[in-house]
Amino acid sequence: MHSVLAPDINWATLRVLAHNGVETIVPSAQGCCGAILMHLGEHERARQLARHNMQVFPQDVDAILTNAAGCGSGMHDYQWLFAGAEDQAVAEAFAARVQDGTVFLDQLGLEPPSPMPVPLRVAYHDACHLAHGQRVGSQPRSLLGAIPGLTLVPLQEADFCCGSAGVYNLLHPEIAKEFLHRKLDRLALTGADVVVAGNPGCLLQIAAGLRERGMSMRAAHTIELLDWSYRGVVP
Fold it and tell me: Counting C-beta atoms within 10 Å of the first and last residue's C-beta, which end of the chain has fewer, N or C?
């Protein structure tokens, strides 16, 4: 998803992994994980996409990493998407290796970021597919807390949906906008320079809302702030 919406996040992810001594393989034949079709109830079409990825991803890797919470949640759900199918065991083994990049880095033990400080006030928004779908919340905060000079400020209702919700903002735009305004109201109280999230849908939704309100706050991915710290550059 990031390759289309925010390719810089993919490059930042590769740089951060390399800095931490991780050899990364990017299968050139990989395709959509099928999460969007799963949201729409198109399970057979989703299985077709999932089977393709299960074939082209190597099996001799320690983990299958994602930097998009929606995709990660969708791939974790392969275990029930293929329930009763002849390739259920393959799907379960694949899903078991899927990890959000922040979880992997937190477990690996993060190489200390650059001593050059990143003097930013940062609010962390819990993407629904990360916090509720994958039960991931402490690991991104732990990584952000390791960045010198960065101040992680509390955000009220951090795990309340921003309104993106997969395809919800397309199917129910009015309700999605209400959720977005509620999120923006809470963000405005933080005084943060940057709001950080782990899902491209959230980042697009929140960034659009920030622009509409004329707020100077930026939206960025967790991995981008680590990349800025390692490079000693805040764009």
Answer: C
The contacts found for 84-87 with CB under 8 angstroms, 24 or more apart, are: 85/47, 87/51, 87/54
Tell me if 34 sits within 8 A of 49, measured CB to CB: yes
| Helix 101-108 vs helix 7-19: crossing angle, to nearest 10 | 10
Burial bucket for residue 15 (CB in 10 Å: 0-12, 13-18, 19+): middle
Strand order across the 194-197 sheet = 151-153, 121-124, 194-197, 218-221
Q: For each successive 10 residues of the chain (235 residues), what is the average pLDDT?
A: 71 97 94 90 94 94 95 93 94 96 97 88 96 95 96 97 78 86 97 96 95 96 96 87
Phi-psi region of 125 (alpha: psi -120 to 50; beta: other; left: phi over 0): beta
Mean pLDDT of the chain: 93
d(CA 127, CA 202): 7
Report the DSSP beta bridge partners of residue 99: 65
Contact 192, 123 (CB under 8 A): yes
CATH code matching the domain that covers 111-231, chosen among 1.10.150, 3.50.30, 3.40.50, 1.10.3470: 3.40.50
